[in-house]
Write a structure and sequence with these properties.
- This protein has helices at residues 45-49, 67-79, and strands spanning 7-8, 22-23.
- With 80 residues, the protein is mainly alpha-helical.
- It has one domain.
- A two-stranded antiparallel ribbon has the order 1-2.
- The longest helix has 13 residues, at 67-79.
- It is globular, with a radius of gyration of 12 Å.
Length: 80
């Protein structure tokens, strides 16, 4: 199902939503659901994986990946 069906604080909540756990949606056909993150601030999956929208690796450990590896990962996720 490409989800753990749990709630996680991914650091995107602001104001009353800060520290709130958010549902982990399935990655299957995620290409249908853009824009991404709770408030739509990430326009692409690559944006979700980038340092700007993934501080502290809260959406996955991507900070050590090269640009090509991030691109490859985004393409993989979009292929599901």
């Amino acid at each position: 199902m490409f989800t753990d069906l749990k709630k996680h604080d991914v650091g995107t909540g602001k104001g009353s939503q800060a520290k709130k756990g958010f549902d982990t949606p399935t990655l299957i056909e995620i290409w249908r659901t853009a824009p991404y993150l709770i408030d739509g601030r990430a326009l692409t999956i690559l944006d979700v994986l980038s340092k700007k929208h993934n501080p502290g690796d809260r959406h996955g450990k991507t900070s050590d990946l090269t640009k090509q590896e991030l691109t490859d990962m985004a393409q993989y996720v979009l292929s599901l």
